[in-house]
Structure formats: structure tokens, C-alpha cells
Amino acid sequence: MQAPRDLESPRPNPRLMNMLFVLYAVSAVVTAGLIAYGVWEASQAAPTPGGAKPVTALIARDLARLHTQRQIIVTVGGFLVFAWLGGVLLLRIRSSYLGVLAQIHALGEEIVDLNRKDTLTGIGNRRLMVEELSRITAQADREGKPLAFAWLGVDLLKQINDAQGIKTGDTCLMSVAAGMQACTRRPLDLAVRLGGDEFLLCWYDTTPEHALEMAQSLQAKIKAMPLRHADGAPLTLSIGLARRNHGSGASWESALRQAEDAMRHAKAAGRDRIVGS
């Protein structure tokens, strides 16, 4: 089983970063403008032509104006600063929220993927088989293509488990799965473990001759592996072949039943053989 891949939080939205920068720049410009306006208005405090006012009155008037301007500057500047800080905080919250959502989504995909794979061999399981064969069959009907099926049974696996241990038996199953993956490299080919010592292969748009050739090649590859029974006999496969032709009206379920029956006949006939077409 593969370890869950590393998860990364998404980067902040550049548009939001630009908006916050503009807000900060506007607040700085407005604050500078208010200060400049206050200085300019204070400089206009000259006596009126009608007569001079007492110096104390002019000072009091200017102080009152500066106090009012200071309050305006502090209020507006404070509002803009708090708005900018609030925007930064909201951006960080949004970024964290999106990061959590991305992690949840990725973990959900990991769980779905694990539910569709056999934990020992890493190839598909029965759930994946049902989902994929429904899709593959529909495409084969649209394109007018045949499907070839091979039902595999590992011969005398229980004897290996009893004599050499479950770990050796698991090694045999993983070796069979690896050999199956090597002959299902096309996008619409399928390799799954059905459970126990049984597996299924599906080849898209394959002739009976080619299906038989690949089944024989897989048999020979497994037999040539260093895996052996306690008496030195090689590991072997019994294989049942079946075919679903376009336009026959047969379901993929019926083709699988034919392949399974053929595999049972291969075992009954002495194992290490291929039955069906």
C-alpha cells in the first residue's frame, strides 16, 4: 500500500494580495493628504482686513482647528489601518480554510483509492472490477469492440501456506499480480484480485489467439519464478478464458461466469492448464 502523498496548502490568491496592497496605499495617501490639509489650513490663519484680532484669540482658534483636524486624521487613519489589518487576517483565515479543505479532499481521494485496491497486491479489487467493467463494456459497445477475459487460479496455494507459511503464500500472490500488471498496460485493460487465490484479467479489443498467447506467457513467467512448493514443484496457474463479442447481447457478468467455469474445469483436469477461448 502506498503512503498518502504529501499535502500542500494552496497559495494565497494574488488578486486579494493586490487589493490589500492598494488599500494600504490608499490609507497612506489619505492620511498624508489630511495632514497636509491641516498644515495648509493652519497657515491661512492671518488677520482679516477688518481689523486685527488679539493674538490669544488667534492662537485659541488655531488650536481648536488643529485639535479637530487631529481627531479627523486619527479617526480616518485608524479606520484604514484596522481595515487593512482585518483584510490581512481574513486572507490568512481564508488561506488556512482552503488548506484544510484541500487536505480533506486529498484524504478523501486516498480513502476512495484504497477502497478500490487490494491491500496485499496493490491491484484492483472486486469493487474496482464492477466499476471499471461497466465503463469498459459501455465503451466497447459504442466502438464495436470485443472483450477477452481470463479467470486465474493459483494452484495449491493452501499447501504453500500450510508448509511454508502465510508470508510465502502472500509472496506468491504478489508475484502473480506483478505478472498480470505486465500484460495489462493499455488504458482499457484491467487486472484485479477477486479474493483468495483467484484473479481476473480483461483485455480490450483482443483476438482469441492473442488472449491465449498472453495467458500462456503469464503461465510460463509464473512457472519460471524461484517460488516453489515444499517438494520443489513450481508455482502454476489454472486459467479459464471467455469472450464477449459486440452485438451478442451478453453482459460482462455472463462472460465472467463462463471464464470462472472454464477455470474450474482446468483445475479439475489436473491444474496448470488453460481452458476456454
Describe the protein in words.
- With 277 residues, this protein is α+β, with helices and mostly antiparallel strands.
- The protein folds into two domains: 14-115; 126-276, Reverse transcriptase/Diguanylate cyclase domain (Alpha-Beta Plaits), CATH 3.30.70.270.
- 60% of the residues lie in helices and 12% in strands.
- It has seven helices and five strands; from the N terminus they run αααβααββαβαβ.
- The chain has helices at 14-43, 55-115, 126-143, 157-164, 166-182, 208-223, 252-268; strands spanning 147-154, 190-195, 198-204, 237-244, 274-276.
- Strands 2-3-1-4-5 form a five-stranded mixed β-sheet, sandwiched between helices.
- α7 links the parallel β4 and β5.
- α1 runs antiparallel to α2 (55-115) and α4 (157-164) packs across α5.
Question: Could you write a compact summary of the structure shown?
Answer:
With 277 residues, the protein is α+β, with helices and mostly antiparallel strands.
CATH topology (level 3) name of the largest domain: Alpha-Beta Plaits
The total of helices stands at 7
The strand line-up of the biggest sheet is 2-3-1-4-5
- Over all CA atoms, what is the radius of gyration? 39 Å
Under CATH at level 1, the class of the largest domain stands as Alpha Beta
The best one-word shape is elongated
Mean pLDDT, all residues: 80
Q: Tally of extended strands?
A: 5
Low-pLDDT stretches: 1-10, 46-52
Distance between the termini: 34 Å
Keywords:
7 helices, disordered N terminus, 5-stranded mixed β-sheet, Alpha-Beta Plaits, alpha+beta, 2 domains, single chain, 277 residues
